[in-house]
């Protein structure tokens, strides 16, 4: 089994961007928590930090596998023994606060990770938990100090930053890295951490300097992630790219690490709009939840909070996530990731990555390390488990949306190029993924894109592969469209030509473009396939398709419990004519079964004495029996009627019988 390091999820701060009026810059009297009652920052900013036109509404969600390791001296202040010190008896919860260079360490600790959030800056640092096995290993201290010195450097830069100059987050991170090295080296505290942060700033319009727009400066080192979500379009407009040395070994800052912010940190500028959501997440979130799950969870929490249907919603201004909405969204996201992390049978992005690397892994990532010495039997078992899930998923698509073999698979140009680059047989790989016969198809626009890039290396092989695929007419003729349409527009016109959000022709789409797959998740009943690190992956059923399937299952359940009302049968005939027309089947109608009543039953038939037959005084002659049999009506002719005979006739018959008996005796 893989080893279990310290913490399972790092901090998950989410931030919202409400509109605030541009206020006059001041350096004496501004305090964010006093002036803005809805502010939810973890720490107060410096008094002389200028007021910017925009700010964050923040919230934090934390979950750790175990409590954080205590900081060693001198970073942890001893409890006070003086009764005059307000930190001794009156505030016992603040007795042992963490200090560095005489200052309180900013932020919060979560296992080996740390998080910081303020009006203008958020960050999430993921400490490497393997240092917990070392006597002097303190990854949590390293991640906390990096966040403290980084935020302090940004605040100091804002104080003296000219209005026309842009901030430099990488320089601030480099300064924080050097100060952390200086503070920990003298105390022999070992550790490493990844770091990601988002600094909110603004830019002014060249035509009108009074008009400003928000800008986000994102800095990343390692595998933590900053994601920007736009609720108005429900799309991810930006996210950072992970930095790796190799699988499960990200770039990191600290002891014996060759990485530094100046050489390895990446900084991006993102133009924001009022209302955008910014998330800073550790790998504990992105390794357990797919991107579309994160987006759906955040949007759902925000909508429930603003509408007042959330369990923690209260009266007051809830617009824009104010008064606790961001905290609720962060905690909901953390809870969703925690459920996957503690489930040993859950399928997660981390499990997919481990399988792609040929390693064995089950369930969500609870901050585990995967060993290459795992047996090959475990790896093959996991591949078999994934194959079984894919087969079950395609069966669900077949039952709900009517898919059948051969499956029509729409392939884009990037899928063809990647399959050619990985030396992958496209059609057999698709057949193994969907567990059935396939018919790969490519549109005219995608073919034109390949021909346009034929001078690039490796494209000739991709073109030869695309020629073997069936051509799907998309209707975008070169005469009408000199330039080929984008993959998103072309595939949407083929899959959903009438914008009904229905996959009428039951296409399976194999695309490498994340935006295309995100768009197609909104169309009901579209299986999505992509290649990641030479492994073909079938995405889980999207939420829209899951809702359709659940609705159909509920309708089937209701259909089974409905009473089946049949036609009323007539029991008796109204007259003799209708009785004569009855068929033999109607004459042999079954009697209705009597319901078994409750209470005492009759005697046991096996214990009851058999009734005795009553003896008749005289036996009738056989001739009389034969006569009666002749007179009896045939079966099915109605009720038998007895004939009335006169007394004289009866006496004559008796004499004849007696005489016949005497003659017989005389002859014998």
Low-confidence runs (pLDDT<50, min 5 residues)? 1-41, 82-95, 367-379, 565-576, 623-632, 654-668
Query: What structural class should be given to the helix and strand makeup?
Result: alpha+beta
Assembly status: single chain
Query: What about the largest sheet?
Result: 7 strands, antiparallel
- The value of Rg in angstroms is 42 Å
Per CATH, the class of the domain at 9-80 and 92-284 reads: Alpha Beta
Query: Which fold does the CATH topology of the domain at 9-80 and 92-284 refer to?
Result: Phosphatase 2c, domain 1
Total beta strands: 22
* Large-scale geometry: globular
Number of helices: 20
Q: What fraction strand? A: 15-25%
- Judging by the overall fold, what is the CATH architecture of the domain at 9-80 and 92-284? 4-Layer Sandwich
Mean pLDDT: 76
Fraction in helix = 25-40%
Distance between the termini: 110 Å
